[in-house]
Specification:
It is a single chain. Helix content is 28%, strand content 27%. The protein has 10 helices and 24 strands. It has a 6-stranded mixed beta sheet, with helices on both faces. Helix 3 crosses helix 10 and helix 6 packs across helix 7. It is elongated and about 75 Å long.
Length: 446
């Protein structure tokens, strides 16, 4: 391992050691103590490396070099999703195993921030004197709505072009729209359901309690065994049955890669013969298909189809609620979404409310920005087969005009983001830096 790589890993380890999950705001720290601490540490690292820095009210901060009115913006984030369960190592102590490092945020997105920072350092140390400013903007609330970048756009100079290292190579020229819905029970025999850890990941675990006489126990056990659940337990305590279902987490943009523990539980309850209004409503409207067909939203265009994810399930005052995160095709309007699902949102068994409908993002694949970033990827990797894509995920590109997501994930690599044992290949980190060096050079020439 060369000296530069070792330095990068040391820098990344400093950031991983801080749990930067969003928590309740405190004075001067709008997203809680952890994100502010991660920003302070990142800015300290950037200052040690000789860059100009600025903290924008603990919403975000930046490091930059170069001169001029135009800004090439690189927007990465320092906040993380909750660690969750199932880790083989401490998620906040970066672990080196072979050619990989493990920890929450090594790929999403502290690793991307570090790669961009060291690309900037390499260019500056080469003697480059750019006539545009190259600015690494580090946000602290990407995982919970990107308010940090909205604040940046309202209070700082705009960027002329750039990228966010928080997607995939060889570039993302479109991002599906994001729609949020909330499901509520009206009448149910279920005593409680609790599962999931964030709205934008598949519900990976779910505990359900119901009266012991609501369904035949052996029929339920058989039905649970026939679902896609990797494991489950079914126990009887006094007058109630308790189902502990273990699914598989996955990002909300690719829910078919996961196994929804809540959905499988509902599927099994119905298969075992339980008659219940909300179990029926859930299976009819949500189910395990992930395609929105139950609410009239099985939509597709030439860049992709709609996906639906149930992330969190909880019970309050006898009412079960379920969050839905939908990623909608880039050509589908908000009006089309509302119209298509309207007949399916409520009946005597349950109701679904639309919380928000976000706009999609789309750059033509032959636009100058997409082409110059793609060229950087091709020049470093030699991969001419993989083309820029449209994804279901949402990035800072939807909040910062003039940028697209570019890296840091490589084709065919599953870094387990939003899951246990998130990892980063060291060789891929080194390649990220080389690609970002070329990308910045190309953007300077635009």
């Amino acid at each position: 391992m060369n000296e530069s790589t070792r330095a990068m890993l040391d820098t990344l380890a400093r950031l991983i050691s801080i749990n930067s999950e969003r928590t309740a705001p405190v004075e001067g720290k709008p997203f809680g103590v952890g994100p502010a601490a991660a920003l302070a540490e990142a800015l300290s690292i950037c200052e040690e490396m000789g860059f100009r820095t600025h903290n924008l009210d603990n919403y975000c901060g930046w490091a930059e070099f170069g001169e001029g009115d135009e800004i090439i913006g690189i927007a990465g984030h320092l906040d993380v999703v909750p660690a969750g369960e199932g880790w083989d190592t401490d998620p906040f102590t970066m672990a080196l195993k072979g050619d990989r490092v493990y920890g929450r945020g090594v790929s999403d997105d502290k690793g991307g921030v570090v790669a961009a920072l060291y690309a900037m350092k390499q260019l500056r140390d080469s003697g480059l004197k750019p006539t545009k400013r190259i600015r690494l903007i580090m946000g602290t609330a990407e995982e919970t709505g990107s308010e940090c970048m909205d604040y940046y756009c309202a209070h700082a100079e705009p960027v002329s072009c750039g990228f966010t290292p928080d997607g995939a190579f060889p570039g993302i020229h479109g991002e599906k729209g994001g729609t949020s819905m909330l499901v509520r029970s009206k009448k149910t025999k279920l005593l409680s359901m609790k599962g999931g850890f964030v709205t934008n990941a598949v519900c990976n675990r779910c505990v359900t309690e119901l009266p012991a006489d609501a369904v035949d126990q052996e029929a339920l056990r058989k039905a649970l065994s026939e679902t896609a659940l990797p494991s489950f337990t079914l126990t009887c305590q006094e007058d109630r049955l308790i189902i502990e279902a273990v699914g598989v987490s996955a990002h909300a943009s690719t829910p078919l890669l996961g196994v929804n523990a809540a959905g499988c539980t509902m599927q099994a309850l119905a298969a075992a013969g339980m008659e219940d209004d909300f179990v029926s409503f859930y299976n009819d409207r949500i189910g395990t298909a992930c395609d929105g067909s139950g609410i009239g939203l099985k939509l597709v265009d030439e860049w992709g189809d709609l996906t639906l994810n149930n992330g969190i399930v909880k019970t309050e005052n006898g009412v079960i609620t379920c969050t839905l995160d939908l990623r909608t095709p880039v050509t589908v309007s908000a009006e089309e979404i509302r119209s298509a699902c309207a007949p399916y949102l409520e009946d005597q068994r349950g109701c679904i409310t639309i919380e928000s409908i976000g706009k999609p993002l789309f750059f033509p694949a032959d636009s100058d920005l997409v082409k110059c970033l793609h060229k950087a990827y091709v020049d470093v990797t030699g991969d001419t087969e993989t083309q820029p894509m449209v994804i279901g995920g949402g990035t800072y590109a939807k909040h910062v005009p003039g940028i697209i997501a570019f890296g840091c994930a490589f084709p065919d690599t599953d870094n387990h983001i939003h899951d246990a044992n998130e990892f980063l290949e060291i060789s891929e980190l080194e390649q990220q830096v080389a690609i970002y060096v070329k990308a910045i050079e190309n953007l300077l020439a635009v």
